[in-house]
Amino acid sequence: ALVGVTVGRATAPRGTGAEELARDYVARATHEMTVAENERLRRHVAALDKNAHRLAEKTEALQTQVADLTARTEEARKAEEARAVAASTRKGPAVVFGPWGELEGIRDADWDAMAGAVEKINAELVALVQLLTEDKPIPVDLQQRIAAENAKLVKYYGSIAGKIPTDSPINGEFSHPVTAANLIAAMLARGGRPLSEEQTAGLASLGEQFDEAIAERRAAHGEATPRLLKLIDELELKTTCYDAMRQSLTDEQRALVIHPEIDGRLQLDTLSPSTMAQLIAKPAMLGSPAELRGRIESMLAQEFEIRAQGNEQVAPIIDRWCQDVQSLLEKPQHAKQPILLDDAIVAGRAQAIALEALLALPDLSEKTRNLLLSSPAWYVPRVTEAAEKTTSR
Questions:
Q1: CA dist., res. 253 & res. 271, Å (int)
Q2: How many whole angstroms separate alpha carbon 281 and alpha carbon 235?
Q3: Taking the CB of residue 65, how many other CB atoms lie within 10 A of it?
Q4: Beta carbons within 10 angstroms of residue 196's beta carbon
Q5: CB 286 within 8 A of CB 380
Q6: In the Cβ-directed half-sphere of 373, how many Cα atoms lie within 13 Å?
């Protein structure tokens, strides 16, 4: 204190008393403390601002997560509602055209259950194709599961058999577009991607166009038209209709009903018209393209009692036949790979044209003429991959 007073007295302006010096000292000390406190408070406020900024960022992130969860919940809710609607309306067809909506088997069909069966069958068939590709045996239980689900479709087929016009001895009624359209509609509803009103009307319109086209084609047929030609006409028109139906779907919808591994394969694709070609479109396995002519001559002799070798009237018909299926011989096939529908149509059209030409030949026996007219089966020539590799060496 003495030092302070001495210094104060030495430096203080003249006339400054001890009390004033003391007050000045206290004021300066208080000021310094205030500055220090203000700095401490400034740093504290800065820290609070930084924490508030971090909390704002976390809040924004949480809000984004909540919005995303809300959107997903809403999407799941809509999908569940769509499935509920599908289940509640499954007793009636979603796509109706012509007289088919009034057909009891179609009107009373459980489309939701059948769509579920198709979904399960498709999943099993994709696995089956993989086993075929790897040359592995098909487990018995896999075949049994497919058969169990297929029984639901067989029951439906039995309810419409003989009630829809067709020239096919197998699955002709089942492959009518009314079945494909309603199975597609039910599968999309189950998958949460239902048809829009516009799409539903579009599928119905395509079905009507098929009915009109097939009626015109049948009217053009006559007593001399081979059954095979009638059948291929029907198969082509159904395929055109089905392809147009698929094109009317969105990418997400197509993914629910189309499996590339089985798409358009006979005995695999339940939705496509290929079902009417199974068992009657038969593979003719060839060691090389050069074997085709001999195979055709042998078939004509065995099935129609037509001698082809050395027959100048038959030779040009076989020439045309071989030419019409040439494209099939240029793409080797795995021996166990089911036939593609497009290939079956090419081969069927070629054989139907040949049968029609053979019917125009003179001096045919009545038996041969009846066989040419009534036979619904045809052959699909195929060169196996192994044979092609051997030939190319």
A1: 14
A2: 12
A3: 10
A4: 12
A5: no
A6: 14
Structure tokens at 106: 């179609």
Alpha-carbon span 169 to 179, nearest angstrom: 17
- Asked whether 380 and 339 are in contact (CB, 8 A), the reply is yes
φ and ψ of 381, to 5 deg: -65, 135
**Phi-psi region at 337: left, alpha or beta (left = phi > 0; alpha = psi -120 to 50):** beta
What pLDDT was estimated at residue 84?
A: 55
Encoding tokens for residue 194?
A: 């239902």
Token duo for residue 75? 């999407």
Task: Calculate the dihedral angle through the C-alpha atoms of 114, 118, 120, 123, rounding to the nearest 10 degrees.
Answer: -170
How far are the Cα atoms of 30, 33, 155, 222 from residue 8, in angstroms, in the given order?
18, 21, 117, 135
CA–CA dist 362, 377 (Å, integer): 24
Tokens (6 digits) for 173:
């009624």
d(CA 262, CA 15): 112
Residue among 376, 355, 204 at smallest CA distance from 276: 376
Residue with tokens 């089905």, as numbered in its chain: 242
CB-CB neighbours of 329 under 10 Å:
18
Q: What is the pLDDT of residues 219-248, one digit of tens each?
A: 999 999 999 999 999 999 999 999 999 999
Lowest mean pLDDT among 76-80, 309-313, 357-361: 76-80
User: Is 392 strand, coil or helix?
Assistant: helix
Residue pLDDT, tens place only, 40-81: 878 887 888 788 888 888 888 878 888 878 888 787 677 666
Asked if 183 and 269 touch (Cβ cutoff 8 Å), the reply is: no
Q: What one-letter code names the amino acid at 165?
A: P
